[in-house]
Amino acid sequence: MTVKQYDVVVVGAGNAALCAALAARQNGAKVAVLERAPEDQDGGNSRFTAGAFRCVYAGVDDLKKIMPDLSEEEIANTDFGTYTEDQFFDDMFRVTQYRADPDLVELLVRSSLATMVWMRETGVRFVPIYGRQAHKIGNRFKFWGGLTVESWGGGPGLVDRLKSICARNGIEIFHETRALNLIHEDFAVHGVRARRGNQMIEYRAGAVVLACGGFEANTEMRTRYLGQGWELAKVRGTWCNTGDGIRMALDIGASPAGHWSGCHAVQWERNAPEFGDLAVGDQFQKHSYPWGIMVNALGQRFVDEGADFRNYTYAKYGRVVLEQPQQFAWQLFDAKVSHLVRDEYRIKQVTKVKADTLEELAEKLEGVDPKGFLDMIRRYNAAVDQDTPFNSAIKDGRGTRGITPPKSNWANTIDTPPFEAWQVTCGVTFSFGGLRVNTGAQVLDTDMKPIPGLFAAGELVGGLFYFNYPGGTGLMSGAVFGRTAGTSAARVVAGTLAAAQ
Ligand SMILES: Cc1cc2nc3c(=O)[nH]c(=O)nc-3n(C[C@H](O)[C@H](O)[C@H](O)COP(=O)(O)OP(=O)(O)OC[C@H]3O[C@@H](n4cnc5c(N)ncnc54)[C@H](O)[C@@H]3O)c2cc1C
């Protein structure tokens, strides 16, 4: 067996891993990154993202620290608002039904801005998310939903940039190298055993950072932990996140934590492939449902499409669609709101129908009971509050009266042709259950003690997300915990973090 020696070995080459590798290197460690995928598919789920990061900012001065290229014109024409620590705390606890680990949330929230500034200083570029997170009101853009910044070039831009910064800093990335187990001797982790083709390699190190994703791409684990039916979900991102890091750590006594039967899952093109397609990226998602209605095979609505801004509902509505008969729904819009439908609805790879009358539409909605559908539309249209004005920039309170489920905001009658509908199913993004870590990103064992030499970051950290998730938090938490893990790991190796030993 070939043996290689490093200070810190990082497993995975997504956002969390590359942030960990950079932080470890900045703290003096010799670092190796092991990536299971070939080079043209590396970057994991991070590569599939739009690159949206949820971070705290007190106003435009903070945003200028992250985006020094913001022009005077952009600043003059934009109401960026603020996103305070209190708002981020509120969002995290509200959407997770107050189950999120307060210590981990505190690290995430309070380090978010500093971590963005650090990424910017290492060379990552960010831009405002004008396209998806701002409405134009008169001559000014107004941001909404606490999500304002994305990486330049989206997910691919982020990963490629991080990789080139790693290369510049002398960090080696080994592709097609799949970590199989941890080298665990004398109750401490001393490296990783990996397979590269038909060769086994031992990467020995003073510390290991696991940042190799959750188990969402593992059909068997999805069904075992998320439950019956989850084998039928599409995987939005990489095929590589099969729970290897979680399993390796549990094998040596790590403690599981978080919502093991929970996951982030969205509405996704019905006929999308089993795993993500990098040529399409996140465009299979269909996130404009707050402006329309959703119907199932019975022709019935089944969820409050306007319960909240999309950022706070999209991650849990995939599960709701999976629970419908035959695991599909149609999202439906009339001409009054068609200008609000996002770009992702206009790609070629969609299952879409268009009709000039509701009766014609009812016949075209494949798999849907036409009579049930037409009855439901009549009841729905009669229930819409016509007195409150429609306003897509705020939670407008224009709801329905007397029907179940209600639509709480942005309710409009469906009566103006042409009618357009897109068919969706459930696309799983990432699993919520994972490893228990402390605020130093050290992995804890089942006696709640740090496992010497073992750190974790990104999707495979358990305890942050339950039931739901505020958009843009995956990359942010990956960066915060990645940076923390890399720093702690390097310090352990340098002998300055006695607590881990
Ligand atoms: C379509 C889509 C859009 C999204 N959009 C956003 C967004 O805009 N903003 C946001 O915050 N979040 C978004 N997310 C969620 C986000 O992608 C994740 O939260 C985040 O990227 C996870 O980062 P990570 O580094 O933990 O994992 P990943 O980026 O998935 O990286 C894990 C890496 O580990 C590798 N790996 C797995 N097993 C092994 C092994 N045994 N050995 C070696 N390597 C291994 C994988 O190949 C992969 O490269 C999106 C996800 C998807 C799928």
Structure in words:
There is one protein chain. A hairpin with a 2-residue loop joins strand 11 and strand 12. Helix 6 (102-122) packs across helix 14 (473-493) and helix 12 crosses helix 13. The chain is 29% helix and 22% strand. It is built from 14 helices and 24 strands. With 501 residues, it is α/β, with parallel strands linked by helices. The two termini are 28 Å apart. The model has no long low-confidence stretch (mean pLDDT 96). The strands form six sheets. It has a six-stranded mixed β-sheet, sandwiched between helices. Strands 15, 17, 18, 19, 20 and 21 form a six-stranded mixed β-sheet that branches. A four-stranded mixed β-sheet has the order 1-13-12-11, with helices on one face. Bound molecules: flavin-adenine dinucleotide. Flavin-adenine dinucleotide is lined by residues 11-17, 34-37, 42-46, 48-52, 178-179, 211-213, 236-238, 240-241, 244, 276, 282, 429-430, 458-459, 472-475, 478.
